[in-house]
Design goal:
seven-stranded mixed beta sheet; about 120 residues; mainly beta; four-stranded antiparallel beta sheet; elongated; about 60% strand
Length: about 120
């Protein structure tokens, strides 16, 4: 079994910054893709950023240049630095990881989500 736990959400004023963290624990051999998704009220969940095992990244157009995804494979963690936050960034943010377990299975796991609210 693998568990993901996010942290770092909260309330921030427009133009402010937050850093989200997500730690995976359990029967992990290694992790391929790591993602951040978000879901705003009344909207579909959307992918915000992805980072491969090789460190290649890709971002949604709405956050490009403002958000930075990174990973620490030694700690099985993914991070997202969010700068110049806007009210439209308000959402529940989820991390997701494609995990290869110690038994050789490849499975997607999701965190429980952390609320980010951008408001004055």
């Amino acid at each position: 079994q693998v568990q993901l736990e996010e942290s770092g959400g909260g309330l921030v004023q427009p133009g402010g910054s937050l850093r989200l963290s997500c730690a995976a624990s359990g029967t992990i051999r290694y992790i391929n893709y790591m993602h951040w998704y978000r879901q705003a009220p009344g909207k579909q969940r959307e992918m915000v950023a992805i980072i491969t095992r090789e460190g290649a990244t890709n971002y949604a157009g709405s956050v490009k240049g403002r958000f930075t995804i990174s990973r620490d494979d030694a700690k099985n963690m993914v991070f997202m630095q969010m700068n110049s936050l806007k009210p439209e960034d308000t959402a529940v943010y989820y991390c997701a990881m494609m995990v290869v377990t110690t038994t050789g299975l490849t499975t997607d796991y999701w965190g429980q989500g952390t609320q980010v609210t951008v408001s004055s």
